[in-house]
Amino acid sequence: METIRTKVCVVGGGPAGVMHGLLLARAGVEVVVLEKHADFFRDFRGDTIHPSTLELMHELGVLEDFLKLPHQETPTIDARFGDYVATVADFSHLGTQCKFIAMMPQWDFLNFIADFGKRYSTFDLRMETEATGVIEEKGKVVGVKAKTPKGDVEIRADLVVAADGRHSTVRDVTGFEAEELGAPMDVLWFRLPHKDDDPRTTTFFFEAGQIVILLDRGDYWQVAYIIPKGGLDAMKAEGMEAFFRTLTHIAPFLADRTGELKSWDDIKLLSVQVDRLKKWHKAGLLLIGDAAHAMSPIGGVGVNMAVQDAVAAANILTEPLRGGDLSEEDLAAVQARREFPVRVTQKMQVMVQNHVISPLLKQDEALKPPLPVRLAAAFPPLRRLPAQIIGVGVRPEHIEMAEDPAALAAPKKKVTRKVAKKPVKKAAPKAA
């Protein structure tokens, strides 16, 4: 079995894992990041890059290059109740470099961060390397067991960071206890073509018993259709035509393109869960992102919360890792830093789930816009508060560690060879 030795092993090549690996490597800490797939190309993942994450791109000095990637900019969010439409969040007043949400495929975001990481000799991203367990000695996690197409491998490390999502293997094998906060809904995700005369804004549609979110992705709509928890089987029993009727009742302009959905296989079920670990760490191991706290899709903040975890962990752990004196108290400091914003955000999400979404899904009478929506329509400054909560969040993180010039990978030298010149024969002219 191959054995690899490194300072930090990050399990999971999602936003939290790749960003954390990049920041540590940039600061001169040796990192191996494990991603079980051969690439980052996975559909129906979080594609919202919020102003807080764009601010981090600015702090890294790569924002201009990042925004050259294909994306759509969402400066406002609208809510529609029947014929009543109101802007409920306006990002134009945020104190950030970018005053919009960037809608970008997550694989583009991850590829960009991974390519940035390759600038550093201390960054080692290993694709098709799936963690299967941890190595423990004397009550401390000292590494990870993994499998690759070429065989099993052990990665020995001073610290293992589990960023492998809400279905975390590391979380399962180490027996961490999660507190379930519950969710009354699931989400159906699918795509429909975007036509030139369609609206150009992200909009939440509310009707009696129905909630649909349309995310403008340029040439297509990313559609989120909210259903009661466990309600997909009942929908399938009624058939796709019944589903199309309910969808086009709330968004009539989609009626001419529902035929793009050939079967239920074209629709992805996101089973919503909201939970958080009571403890995010043990000796030699730290969990961050969805592995530590699964977020509700409300506000689309999951990616950005995971990235904020990655930044906070790098800020706190870089010096102890460099000095070789990392302790569990340092890992506890990461949880202490990030647990408050996670708790506050999840509390707001659960409140919306229980007091807005769940009643709306059960309602069978025509909806009237609630008072907060009407107030936001009447008093534009009120739109700034939801924009701040969604776009920046509670206690945003900033990059504190400086780049270590010694970590920069040496540029590859071009090998030039002198070749003796041979007489060149002139080719015969081609026939006309």
Alpha carbon gyration radius: 24 Å
Strand residues, percent: 25-35%
- Specify the CATH class of the domain at 2-47 and 105-180 and 273-352: Alpha Beta
Q: Give the class from helix and strand content and strand pairing.
A: alpha+beta
Count the E strands. 21
Q: What general outline do the C-alpha atoms trace? A: globular
Total DSSP helices? 11
CATH homology superfamily of the domain at 2-47 and 105-180 and 273-352: FAD/NAD(P)-binding domain
Overall pLDDT metric: 91
Which CATH-level-2 architecture of the domain at 2-47 and 105-180 and 273-352?
3-Layer(bba) Sandwich
Which regions contain 5 or more consecutive residues with pLDDT less than 50? 413-432
Largest sheet: 8 strands, mixed
Helix content: 25-40%
Instruction: Assign the CATH topology of the domain at 2-47 and 105-180 and 273-352.
Output: FAD/NAD(P)-binding domain
Q: Gap between N and C termini, in Å?
A: 65 Å
Top keywords for this entry?
432 residues; single chain; FAD/NAD(P)-binding domain; 31% helix; alpha+beta; 11 helices; eight-stranded mixed sheet; seven-stranded mixed sheet
What's this, in brief?
This protein has 432 residues and is α+β, with helices and mostly antiparallel strands. Among the domains are: 2-47 and 105-180 and 273-352, 3-Layer(bba) Sandwich (FAD/NAD(P)-binding domain); 185-228 and 230-270. It has eleven helices and 21 strands.
